[in-house]
Fold:
Amino acid sequence: MPNDELMPIGAFAQRSGLTSSALRFYADSGLLPPAEVDPVSGYRYYSTAQVARGTTLRRLRELGMPLAAVEAVLGAGADEATRLLDEHVAKVVGEAAAVQQRAAVIKSTLGNPPGLPLAAVKGPVLAAAVEQVLTATAHQRGMPALAGLAGLRIETSDEAVTLTATDRYRLSTRTVVPAEAPRQTWAGTVHGDELRTALAEIRRSALVRLEAATNGIWFRMADQEDRHCRLLPEEFPDYRLMLESLGDVTTRATVAKDLLLRALEEQPGARVALHVADHAVTVASADDEHPGTTLPATATGEPLQICFELTTLHPAVSTAIGPDVLLDLRGRDQPVTIRSADRGDLTTLAMPVKPGRSA
Structure:
């Protein structure tokens, strides 16, 4: 190699952003060996072609990536390297979330402040209700304004525990009858992801006692490890006002849940149209001329066609309780209420879209 293509270790360090000591370490580890080593002086020389590898190596190490993973990325093609990077980032994010949660637990116990007993609920009942309502939470990273929508609102009153979540396109709310009468009136928005990780323990516990703490809530379980979830400080929407301001129902239909889900899944488009009329509900694609599926239904009121994003309507129907769902419609541009035909303790609102447009 001509000498004018080589540079001493100091110059290469400046070009790549790596220190000379780091370059010696990476040379000895085999990640970035010098292009040439003077056999007499032992001086190390690098080529201009190695600058890109050195720069990438530095950036990967700045991400906290271990040497073995760095070596794999440097030796991989673009697609595989991207996958390895995504895998590393997901691991770092998960570890950071775990640290946050552990820190919240420590903070909740500093000074041993007494917790506020709220209510006791059967574990399997609470877990099922949380899973149903959590489908309506929003998951949008880097958008602080929506942070409150990533949580589940828990409220205790004299008679019930109410769970509510919304992502602006859906709103789900369910009441749960406690095993013991609630001891306090309380409300807080619980971190949705942390609550998801606690569901397995909650489901396996015969009885779960809810206890409010500073900036969090404890789920106390006699036969499982207690779980702590942080509260989100952002304001939760006034969903009761939203429910109270709904217009009058103009069309109502009761249809078998499994048949409706199957019809939704068979439509090829991202949006679906429901046509309610003549004691039937027809499910068709809102994007093309794909033939629809007509389902038997108990339908009353004005005939109506209304369109939804599949990702909005399908979860709202799938979480309904019981074999039949009741659809209360108010017009093609108004929220639809989806409830169980025989049990009304889970209510979901689903926002429609205009024909030919995404939400």
